[in-house]
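Hi L., both proteins are below.
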Amino acid sequence: MGLQAQESHSPYVSLWARLADFRHAELTALLHGRDVVRAKLHRNTQHLVTAEDFRRLRPLLEQVLKKARQGAFGRAIAGLDLHDLEAAGRELMSGEGLTRPQLAGRLAERFPGRDRQALVYATQSLVAHVHPPPSGTWGDRGATPLVLAEEWIGRPLETAPRIEDVVTRYLAVYGPASVMDVQAWSGLTRLRTVLDGMRSGLCTYRDATGRELFDLPDAPLADADVPAPVRFLPAFDNLILSHADRTRVISDEDRARVITGSEVRPVFLVDGFVRGIWSWRDGTLHVRPYRALNPDETSQTGEEAERLLAFLLPAAQHAKGEVVIEG
């Protein structure tokens, strides 16, 4: 549920890795059609979600965003009337909206003597907004405008969203999952009671450590002996971030190499587990395994890398692209 969108290319690669015959224009059309929006949500980072999911999620994550605001700029905005700041932000983001530098300048005029970055950050946490296209679309490197979410979507946010609906949406993508997994993904806490209340409508399992996992009753489970195909995932992909126990897809050793500071590198998976990272520059796709691949794995990784390269490059440049598997 939701695609990491810190980098504009990432959601496109995420969908390419998960959907057959996905084309760039399909997601771009959904963004322009306002069916999908780009906004700051989970972990206080940019995500793409459907407009309907945003209407549910943004109110539920209000406290998470507030905590991040206080941790980052609490001192800088101490003493400010947050109701006044929110009202100013709503007024300035209404209509065509503003870019961040424009918003910073306008807020500084209204609240002189305050740190501009703190004003903008706090306002973004107070006012539900989205970043309309072309921001977040394939190939865009322009400014990031901010507009009122309810105006862009054309409907108000839900006043009493049900956390159960969000948990169900999460399990549809990431189940089977534990209570701690759901909390790690959402940033919300004390969800044990919520999952317990949903228990009669869910399936439950136990993992190898005895931990209880929840899933939807009609969700298919792959047999343990069925090999998973090679997959290439973009930077910040939620598969790497949406579980408390990430060893189900990445070892602790590899996690320390993939996640450094605020960076989450693009990875590739072999048989369902991270085996290395990849990068793309100047028409060349570099694949760097963390451990040696056997001949079959090398062949499968190369074939999938060629498919990814074709997706990344314009059709006219396909013949000029190259895949390099290091090691």
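That was the first. Here is the second:
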Amino acid sequence: MNSEKKYSQFALVKEMMETPEILSKFSLKNADRVIDAIREKGKLFFTGEGSSRIFPAKNAMYCARRAGYDLNLATEGGLQACNYDISDFVVFGASNSGQTKEVIRFFDRLKKIGHKNLYGLTANQHTKLESLAHQTFLLSCGKEDAVAATKSVAEQGLFYQTLLASIQDIDLSKKLSALADAFNIALTMPFDEKITEAIASAGTIYFAGKNDGVAEELTLKTNEITRKKSDWLEGTYAVHGVEEVMNADDVVILIDPFKSELEKIKQTLVDGVGMKVFAVCDEDTIFPTIKVPDIGELANYVYLAAGWNILVEVGVSLGINLDKPQRARKVGNEFIE
């Protein structure tokens, strides 16, 4: 992906290209209240729907657990969360529109029973979510015109990750410039056209990766951007039976794969099924690999950018209008007064 007209004509690409600057300028502001609440409770619950929850919440949880933060972190969609007792959790609801029906219903329920720690994260002011939350944080990325959320997803993710780091008195701000540079490299780097061709002609595009939100989020973006069927294979699920229904014209894209399982994946999927397997990694693998910069604890944003790059290349090669899916909506399930 680059600045050529075949890419730049789309709002989706424009918004992706704005993301590095958004990340480099990110600053957590006016968060003392929620930081104090999380420190006191030691429990934080993330909710939201689709892209507002998958990467932002799961990336934050993965990074916090990997770093050993002493916090009880959980996430679920709004309607299922209505069945849980989270009275002792600080709750964060993310909704770009501030009108996502499931989030509104959940927050309305919690407010009616007197929950004291409800926080919102949105890209719009004066919304229903803001009226229900005790404090609402406004993203700096601005409105997105493309149906597929991109720059907002990255900023939501950085908001949560920075928030949790701040609770541990860790300052991520000095690493944001390097993150923006690495993100831009992954977003715009060229890669073998044969990879694009194979993915574009695939029956189903599988993403395999850790439960950190990246591969799962890219699975959703595959539907919105390429209009192709996709599936997310968590962890090593790719070698635990799903090969029975895979076909030789399917592809698997490994995101930051477990190195110990690469040979087994080759035996099961390449040798066994005859399908093509590609990897996105910070080092070469036994598969054709899109190699990205290594940036430590902020690496998941770089993997996300590389995935966007792949999907745009596939969508453009297929002649798809990246901004206008035929059925998908900007707000999937909107609350209406």
